[in-house]
Amino acid sequence: AVVSTQSTGAVDRQAPGTPLSLTHLPVAVTLSVFDGVTIPDPTEAEERIEEGRVTCCVDEAGCIRSVCSSGHISDELISAALKYATTRSAVLISILRKVTATRNGD
Fold first, then answer.
1. Could you tell me if 16 and 2 are in contact, meaning their C-beta atoms sit under 8 angstroms apart?
2. 64 Cβ contact partners less than 8 Å away, ≥ 6 residues apart
3. Cα dihedral angle (51, 68, 54, 92), rounded to 10 degrees?
4. How far apart are CA 102 and CA 94, in angstroms?
5. Tens place of pLDDT for every residue, the chain, 106 residues?
6. Which of 2, 13, 33, 92 is most buried, judged by most C-beta within 10 A?
7. Is 9 left (phi over 0), alpha (psi -120 to 50) or beta?
């Protein structure tokens, strides 16, 4: 576990940790912005020349948990990114559930 003390901010990789309890599986979806168009899952080369970026975290219940953006991004592009992220996260969560079920022998 990686534990950070609140008073000093020092990191102790050997400290016993507390498991993070999640009620819903969150998935992050990132889109780069070029000339007013969003491109999902940008490559490193695309990230170097992007004008902005939006990362949306959506859980398996379809709830938006966070939105982070950089650059000059319009409200319309953020709305489009949220719609895409909500749809894409459902697909990714389905794949994750299938893979984990297969590995766990379910």
1. no
2. 56, 57, 58, 82, 85, 86
3. 150
4. 12
5. 555 566 666 766 777 777 767 678 889 999 999 998 899 999 999 999 999 999 999 999 999 999 999 998 999 999 999 999 999 999 999 998 898 888 777 6
6. 33
7. left
Sheet holding 37-40, edge to edge: 37-40, 26-34, 52-59, 64-71
Contact criterion met (CB below 8 Å) for 71 and 51: yes
HEC sequence for 62-106: CCEEEEEEEECCCHHHHHHHHHHHHHHHHHHHHHHHHHHHHHCCC
Query: Is-above-0.85 flag for pTM?
Result: no
| Token pair of 36 as six digits | 């007013």
What share of residues in the chain are helix, strand, coil (percent, to 5)?
35, 30, 35
Cα torsion 93, 68, 82, 22 to 10°: value is 30
Q: In one letter, which amino acid is 47?
A: E
